[in-house]
Each structure stands twice: as structure tokens, then as C-alpha cells.
Amino acid sequence: MATQKLILDYVYEHEEKNRDRVYLTQPLGGGAVKDYTWGDVVDQARRMAAHLQSMGLSKGDKVAILSKNCAHFFIAELAIWIGGFTTVAIFPTEGPDTIKFVLEHSEAKALFVGKLDTWAQQEPGVPKDMPRVAFPLAPKTEYDKWDDLVAKTEPLGDKPARGADDLAMIIYTSGSTGQPKGVMHSFGRVTKATEGIVKALAYTSDDRALSYLPLAHVFERAYLECGSLVSGMHIFFAEALDTFVADLRRAHPTLFISVPRLWLKFQQGVFTKMPPGRLDFLLKIPFINKKVAKKVLTGLGLDNCCLAGSGSAPIPAELIAWYRRLGLNLLEGYAMTEDFAYSHLSTPDKSEPGYVGVPYPGVEVKLSEEGEVLIKSAGQMIGYYKRPDLDAESFTEDGFFRTGDKGERRPDGLLKLTGRVKELFKTAKGKYVAPAPIENRINEHPLVEMSCVSGVGQPAAFALVVLAEDIRGKLSDPAVKARVEQELAPWLDEVNSKLSGYEQLQMFVIADAPWSIENGMLTPTMKIKRTKIEDAIKDKLDGWYSKKGAVLWA
What is the dihedral sign for C-alpha 311, 315, 318, 322? Predict the structure, then answer.
């Protein structure tokens, strides 16, 4: 029986065949960059693997990474794997309490400290006796420095192998509520899922991608990091938020994946330069429309992009349609940490705005009697770390994972998500309301950045709305506030016209501050933390419901 080819086997092939080919491009500030070839990357990984072994770690021990996206995140993960260990990545925006929980729960034996913005606040979450290694772009510390260790350590030789059943990584879900859960993935399943993604999307070594979504999240880990380890594509990194456009233009990606909030912000950025009505008019004119669309995509840095993807959360159908009018092949997908992002993807022949695609090859899908989406995937997790109770709850008797999402399937396999099983709530009218599809509709308006539909036990549901960034800065002008009210009041009527009576919203309430990862209202992948938002406004609800008006101000 043939032995399964695993992800490290692909890495060793690139080391041999593509030694001098640039694999990673890291910005260093001030426009400077540093390129790392496959030879550089694997040599440094072999040396750091030898250092980890010299620390006396046992096979399978957990080694953590706390860092924003950078070249050394990739290299450190390879070092962990080559050395015989298991990776635990922590979101770089987490506070000290969550960092402490993940390190202790995972029993991590060492920590790589990387590129971070708030390390001084995070450091108290790390046990004082935990060994630490600082990446080249880490904040200034007294820890052992990566470059020093690599320079004085001989590399591991040969091709250290890992078994298909060996644990490659524990991915701690960011979670919209409660403590993170550790999802265990083996080398065999990680490889199978990655191979499926690479084949379905036709990745090649000539592709280019920009890595900026958190690598601690499964979406970026599977599609970019592991996808590049198998395909050999060139990965560029983003330096900072204010250099993002320059970083994107440097990469000229052929592949670009993002989350709905950023696709929306890109669109709103375009609208600040060209009003939507004028752009729509120009896109209808033959001969001119292609030039206009090309100019818009060039301004976004996406003029070379052959494949664009959106995941992690629902994206408004109108937003997908808008990008496709520009000629961008934007496809929506659907997956989760528990199946290593190998579940559903739109294809050129099976794609429709509002649907999240069809199952990847080999993925089995069915709906429960309650309409819950049940998945069996080649990338299915081994289980939750130290949580056999959750394992028992999460799988059906015949081995399907309970996603917690409600959905509908067309005969051709296209899946439409209709809400979360656990997010459903009842108003005083006694029927369940699914907030996500309503929020998706609300977010299609150009004045809206995000929304949260709520109203548990209230006479009717309502939506808390965060305005688009360019409008928020102008609200001191009474005329701008009046414009917001004038435009959103009919939008409330429009949204309600598509809803059943028990789902209809009584009002829009304009949030008094944006939601962010930093203020705890968004997860690191920019999903809303529904419970946190509802807790923050619970004392204001009675006052809002006592007022009259379609648009209120928090």
C-alpha cells in the first residue's frame, strides 16, 4: 500500500527543485523588502527545528506562535513540524487572559514572539518561565533572537518525516462567545484538504498572493500558507494597515482572498472617489465600461487578479454582483475550522450570488430535520483538544459534523445559508427570527458598514447599525445626520418589504462608535460578537423602543 504524500514531502520537493526561487517577500518598512527563497526558508526551518530539539522537548509537544502575518510565521511552523512538534497559533490581537488560557490549555512548552502591536499589554499572559524566541520583526525584548539562534545552530539533515496521524496543529477558534476551543488537525487530513483546495482552484507556482488575514485562523492557514506549501506559489506580506494598498500593488496578486467587511470597505473606498450612480452609468456604456472597470481594479491593486474569494462570514449578494460587473471573478465559499476550510466553494459553472457554492470533491453534505447543515469532509478535525464532551455533541451517529448553520440546498448542490441554529431568537410575537440574512441585506446599503439584528422578547426586532467610515467622520454636520436619516428610513422599508411580518424591524439605531477587534465587538476575522454587542446596549433598549422614528441615534 502506497504511503500518503504529506505536506512536508511537498516542502522538501520545493527545497530540492526550487531552491533559488523566491517564496516569501517580507516588507521591512520604508518601502524596503526582503525576499526568502525556498532554500532560505527550509534551511532556517531546519536550524530552528534543531534548536527546539536541543531544548529537550518531547515528540508531539506543543509550541506556540504569537505574531501577525510575516515570513517567519511560515518558517517557524515548518520548524515546529520538522522538529517533531505541534503548532499552536494565537491571534495577535488577543488580550493577556486569552493568551494565558491558550498557552495553559494547550500545554505549550515554548513561544515564538513575532510582529505585534500591543506586546506590552499581552506579555503578562505568558508564564514567566516559558522559553521564548523573538522573530526579527518582534518588539524589542531580551529574548533569544531568531537570527542569532539560526546562525549558531547546525540544520537538521535528511527529510524528517511526520506520520499521517501525527498532530500538526491545534487551531483555537476565535469564537464569538465563550472560551476558545482547540481544534486538532493531523498531517494526513491537513494535506488532503490542502491538496483538494489547490486542485479545485488550480494553484500553480506562478501564482502570487498577499497574506494579511490572521494566520491563526483556518481560512488564511489553509488557502494561503498550506496552499503555498503544496503549490509553491509566491507569498507577499502586508506591512501595516496604512501601507495596505502599496503592499497589494507590490504583490499584484493573481489570487486574493478576503472577508466581507474588507470587500465592503474596498467598495466604499471606490465610492468616495466616484459616486455609485456615476460609476453605474459608466459601466453601462459599451466600449467605455471595460476601461472604467480596469481603472477601478487597478486602483485597488487587483488588476492582475484571476481569482478572488470571500469567506469567514456571509457576504451580501449585491456586493458579489458589483465586483463581477468590474470583471473580478469573486467567488464565495463556506467552511470552518473543524473541516480545515474544506467544505464548499463556488465554481465558474455553479455560482450564484447569495449561495456559498457546492461541496468540494469528496465532501458529503446533508440537512437535518431542523435544516442544520451536516458535513463530512476529508479535512475533518480529529476532535476538540481535551473536550471529549464537545466531540460527542458535535457529530452525528454516522460521523457528520454539526455545523450549527441552517441552510437550503438546490438540486444542483448549491448551498444557501439561512442563519445560525443558536443565533435564532424570539420576539414577543413568539416566532424565531434568523438575524444573519437580515443583516446581510441591511449591509448592502452604501451608508452601512455593519449591522446587528436583535430584539429578544421585544415587540419587534431592530437593527443596530455602524455607518460607513467616510460618513462617521462627518456626523458633526447636522446636514450629514439629516442625510443619513433621509436615506436609511426608506431603506428600512425596503428591507422590511422582503421579510415576513414577525421578522420585520421596528427601527434602525445608529451605533455611537464603530465596532472593532480592539474594543471586543469583533472577532479577529471581523465577525460580530453578537452577545458582547447585545450586553453593551441592553440598558438602552427600553428608551429606544419608547421613541418613535425609523432611524434613531444611540
Answer: negative
